[in-house]
């Protein structure tokens, strides 16, 4: 046992090995979900631009632009926060949060063609 001031020998740390990495399937799935979130960002930008006149009838003009920016930024923020907050969690937890976000953040103005 090392003295109180030492962290441990190099042999002890070498036996522990590097942290487990994601498998190929997990990496490909993360890439696909990242691409979906990127497309959602583009969809919110295009859909928000098309519905700007309709939205301005219900919101004050000074609130339309921040609402559109929030809608465009939401998919990117969800992906980033999900990746950040699930670093120490199991891989399936990260995928659950990313899939939930993929269902919640569908760009409905773009999909419906309003």
Account of the 3D structure:
The protein has six helices and no strands. Helix 2 (24-50) packs antiparallel against helix 4 (61-85) and helix 2 runs parallel beside helix 5. The model has no long low-confidence stretch (mean pLDDT 84). The protein is elongated. Helix content is 75%, strand content 0%. With 114 residues, the chain is an all-alpha fold.
SSE ordering? HHHHHH
What is the strand content? under 5%
Please tally the helical runs, counting DSSP H or I stretches of 4 or more residues. Answer: 6
- How many β-strand runs? 0
> How would you sum up the major sheet?
none
The helix fraction, in percent, is over 70%
Secondary-structure-based class equals mainly alpha
**Terminal CA distance:** 69 Å
Radius of gyration: 22 Å
Shape category: elongated
Number of domains: 1
How would you describe this structure in keywords?
114 residues, mainly alpha, 6 helices, 75% helix
Topology readout:
Layout: H1 10-16, H2 24-50, H3 52-58, H4 61-85, H5 91-104, H6 108-112
Helix pairs in contact: 2-4, 2-5, 3-4, 4-5
Short description:
75% of the residues lie in helices and 0% in strands.
């Amino acid at each position: 046992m090392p003295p109180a001031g030492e962290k441990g020998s190099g042999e002890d740390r070498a036996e522990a090995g590097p942290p487990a990495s994601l498998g190929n399937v997990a990496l490909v799935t993360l890439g696909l979900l990242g691409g979906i979130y990127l497309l959602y960002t583009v969809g919110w930008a295009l859909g928000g631009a098309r519905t700007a006149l309709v939205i301005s009838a219900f919101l004050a003009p000074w609130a339309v632009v921040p609402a559109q920016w929030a809608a465009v930024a939401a998919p990117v923020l969800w992906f980033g926060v999900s990746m950040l907050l699930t670093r120490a969690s199991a891989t399936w937890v990260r995928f659950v949060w990313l899939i939930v976000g993929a269902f919640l953040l569908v760009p409905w103005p773009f999909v419906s063609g309003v």
